[in-house]
Amino acid sequence: MDEQHQRSWAEPFKIKMVEPIRMTARADRERFIAEAGYNTFLLRSEDVYIDLLTDSGTSAMSDQQWAGMLLGDEAYAGSRNFYHLEDAVRKYYGYSYLVPTHQGRGAEHILSQIAIKPGDFVPGNMYFTTTRLHQELAGGTFVDVIVDEAHDPAADYPFKGNVDLEKLQELIDRVGAEHIPYVSVAATVNMAGGQPIAMENLREVRKLTKIHGIRVILDAARAIENAYFIQQREPGYHDTPVAKILREMCSYTDGCTMSAKKDALVNIGGFLALNDANLYDEARNLVVVYEGLHTYGGLAGRDMEAMARGIEESVSDDHIRARVGQVEYLGRKLQEADVPIVRPIGGHAVYLDARRFYRHIPQDEYPAQALAANIYLDSGVRGMERGIVSAGRDPQTGENHHPSLELVRLTIPRRVYTQAHMDVVAESVVEVYRHRAEARGLKIVYEPKYLRFFQARFDPLD
């Protein structure tokens, strides 16, 4: 082991500006969570001490990004910031054509509308909530083709995001390649615990789909974190820069949807990137209908400039090593206390295994939702449920989906919190785990039609 791995690491930045946060009293938190219907999404941010709800749009931007904000060209058409963004995407991701959108789900919506026909099937390495909904609204059916290890939170398989090639081939044989518009590949896989896909597997997916004339579309929101895991875990890549690994990953795909609010270190923004000129023509026509002109896509020029600069910063090996290192630090603290978490530790979050945490609470009583609420009650730390509530209902039967993973996600914003904050989070989770036998489940008292985890409300069971 070399000297670098024997010694402590530190963040590759120093703090220039701070934002005060406050701890609330337990009695106040009891009132706040009840008023929020025991849904952490419905809490006011001012009532949260350490906010680990999401890493989407919650990063701290750099001085260079803020400087770029002052150079925003707010022309309605042909903003120079669009061309800066286009250059950055071509340089680091390698795609030919760019359609900016207000965030990732805008790109998902446009892609689904132009690529999916009613009756189509979209295979993917585990669903994501908004992605699957857009596919369903376009008339498609999502089919999970992820490896079985992804559904076992205790398995130490290094690439749980891998596509099971036999499952993919079986689907092609069953429905026909003409009914599969594309394979949806997430890197990393959020719902599996921030788990990566291996380069070798992505290469094999490309080979199989090329035989059948099927596109591969990458969910690139956290692809740089995935590239880091390839660098650390996959033979032949340890000395390869993350930026070069990212380009190779993208080379095995035909395009990507991107929520730039993750890897690209901005508070708002996304894009759809493509290599097919005809598909791009359809996309840039539809973006005018739903988002804005094809050279701004619902974004201000300043936001595109911040995104372009954020992309360049995000592929720095020092940056991504520190980013994932902070997540690993929290995960190891919880493992040392025997708290059940998803293994291996993911790239953007630590996922608590609510099934093992609350063995006495059945899944239909929403144990992960209850756990997220109880952590907030203990310390003011806000996480989020990733289990039966997030999985939603079958659009045909109306019955609950029952995912094998029932998780609470503690998501670390980039460049926001210190190691001391992670210590506070770990201590809170350990305390809640000590009192796990006292916990009770929840019942839904309000449920919206779509993406219920955002707005559903709950009451405690007696």
What does this protein look like?
There is one protein chain. The protein is an alpha/beta fold and 462 residues long. It has two domains: 3-55 and 317-460, Aspartate Aminotransferase, domain 1 (Alpha-Beta Complex); 63-314, Aspartate Aminotransferase, domain 2 (3-Layer(aba) Sandwich). 40% of the residues lie in helices and 13% in strands. It has helices spanning 3-6, 26-35, 63-69, 80-92, 104-115, 129-137, 165-175, 199-212, 223-233, 242-251, 277-290, 301-314, 317-336, 354-357, 367-379, 388-391, 419-434, and strands at residues 50-51, 97-101, 121-124, 141-144, 182-186, 215-219, 255-259, 270-274, 349-353, 381-382, 384-386, 407-411, 442-446, 457-460. The strands form five sheets. A five-stranded mixed sheet has the order 2-8-7-6-5, sandwiched between helices. A three-stranded antiparallel sheet has the order 9-12-11. Helix 8 links the parallel strand 5 and strand 6.
Count of discrete alpha- or pi-helical segments spanning 4 or more residues = 17
- Give the proportion of residues in helices: 40-55%
Tell me the fraction of residues in β-strands, as a range: 5-15%
Q: Regarding CATH, which class of the largest domain? A: Alpha Beta
